[in-house]
Design a protein that fits this description.
- Helix 4 packs parallel to helix 5 (about 110-120).
- The radius of gyration is 24 Å and the shape is globular.
- Helix 4 links the parallel strand 2 (about 70-75) and strand 3.
- The N and C termini lie far apart (about 55 Å).
- A 5-stranded parallel sheet has the order 2-3-4-1-5, with helices on both faces.
- The protein has 17 helices and 7 strands.
- By secondary structure, it is α/β, with parallel strands linked by helices.
- The model is unreliable at about 1-10, about 60-65 and about 225-230 (pLDDT under 50).
- It folds into 3 domains: about 15-155, Rossmann fold, CATH 3.40.50; about 160-220, Helicase, Ruva Protein, domain 3 (Orthogonal Bundle); about 230-355, Up-down Bundle (Zinc Finger, Delta Prime, domain 3), CATH 1.20.272.10.
- The chain is about 60% helix and about 10% strand.
- It has helices at about 15-25, 40-55, 65, 80-90, 110-120, 140-150, 165-175, 180-190, 195-210, 215-220, 230-245, 250-260, 265-285, 290-300, 305-315, 320-335, 340-355; strands at about 30-35, 70-75, 100-105, 125-135, 150-155, 180, 215.
């Protein structure tokens, strides 16, 4: 069928939710290109495709041994396009689908990308090729076009914060639990928008609820990991202060406290990035001659918060503030790629910012 599905516009990229709906309706493509760096959604999309293609359904673990004959995973940094094509063209054992996954596709040269793009149309009907890349590099354009004509492009984007409570409600429902929207919103408010942290916290709450299939406030309150909010809600801003003031020893001490009470590293980083984005904007406005009241109006700040932000912004040039923000982005990449463990990456970040 070459990726065409009745009534669908195959040129439009899918969201992960749309991918799930398509697979539920039995519309499995020969090739997918997953574009985006969001770890949780990337894993979810891959698992949906894998389980559908291999017929695992709800018995993924029990069938893992036999399904392993029909799947292979590669890194583009270590594998050529020709090798991937050869692997995907192998006939599946005992019929069914042959699933081949390739991560870090954006590591391929333009020549490798062109090679794969030219040959995708020749993949056998038994193939299911899943290509994963970060946010679309221009060099991937030929590959994207080829996938759009033969399969589906899936854009891995973090959902809006406003959509997260409903997603938690649905995730709990799929596991047999009822979670009120108001409680889900509280969980998002407490934990933040980090999908990994939310998934972890929901799993803990469900585990605590056990046979009680209706999740109540007492379950949220009883989960020990939520106690970090009582300690860290203000301490995380103390950490931002210490970093902005280049008090490295104090920053490392506060960071240890936050990690000790269970604050997820990516959640800490998300708050720091939020604060530093405001600091960078303030630094740029000050450099442009803006008055404090104009900055307060843009930021929506009260006098106390404005004074603190101005004091921090005046410690940095625009170039220094941008470099510190670049360090934050680099730290996120280090954690998500597994290059550094979360705590170590944040400790290194504190040292980097002190040297900006």
């Amino acid at each position: 069928m070459s990726g065409e599905t009745e009534g669908d516009d195959v040129n439009l990229p899918l969201t992960v939710s749309e991918l799930e709906q398509q697979l539920t309706n039995g519309k499995l493509q020969r090739v997918y290109l997953l574009i985006g760096d969001e770890t949780i959604l990337n894993r979810q999309a891959w698992n949906l495709i894998r389980q559908t293609a291999l017929g695992l359904g709800g018995e993924a673990e029990s069938k893992a041994a036999t399904s392993s004959w029909n799947e292979a995973s590669y890194s583009a940094a270590e594998t050529s396009a020709r090798e991937v094509l050869a692997a995907a063209s192998v006939l599946p054992f005992l019929g069914g689908r042959r699933v081949v996954r390739v991560v870090d596709v954006d590591a391929w040269s333009a020549e490798e990308v062109q090679t794969l793009a030219r040959e995708i149309a020749r993949l056998p009907e038994s193939a299911c090729l899943v290509l994963q890349a970060g946010e679309g590099k221009q060099e991937l354009a030929p590959l994207r076009a080829a996938v759009e004509s033969q399969g589906s492009v899936v854009e891995i984007r973090s959902p809006a914060v406003s959509a997260l409570p409903q997603q938690l409600v649905e995730k709990a429902s799929r596991q047999g639990y009822r979670l009120a929207l108001a409680l889900a919103a509280r969980l998002v408010e407490e934990v933040g928008a980090d999908l990994q942290a939310l998934e972890t916290e929901l799993a803990k709450v469900i585990a605590y609820a056990g046979p009680e299939k209706v999740i109540e406030r007492k379950h949220l309150q009883a989960v020990q990991s939520l106690s970090w909010t009582q300690v860290s809600e203000f301490r995380i801003f103390d950490l931002a202060d210490a970093l902005a003031e280049k008090r490295t020893a104090a920053a490392l001490k506060i960071l240890d406290e936050l990690l000790a009470v269970g604050r997820p590293p990516l959640a800490i980083l998300a708050t720091l990035a939020w604060y530093w984005r405001r600091l960078l904007i303030t630094t740029e406005m000050l450099a442009g001659g803006a008055q404090p009241q104009a900055i307060a109006n843009v930021m929506g700040l009260k006098p106390g918060a404005l004074r603190r932000l101005l004091a921090h912004a005046r410690r940095f040039s625009v170039a220094q503030a941008k470099e510190a923000f670049r360090c934050l982005a680099e730290t996120e990449s280090d954690i998500k790629s597994g290059r550094f463990e979360g705590a170590a990456a944040l400790q290194l970040l504190c040292i980097k910012i002190s040297r900006v």
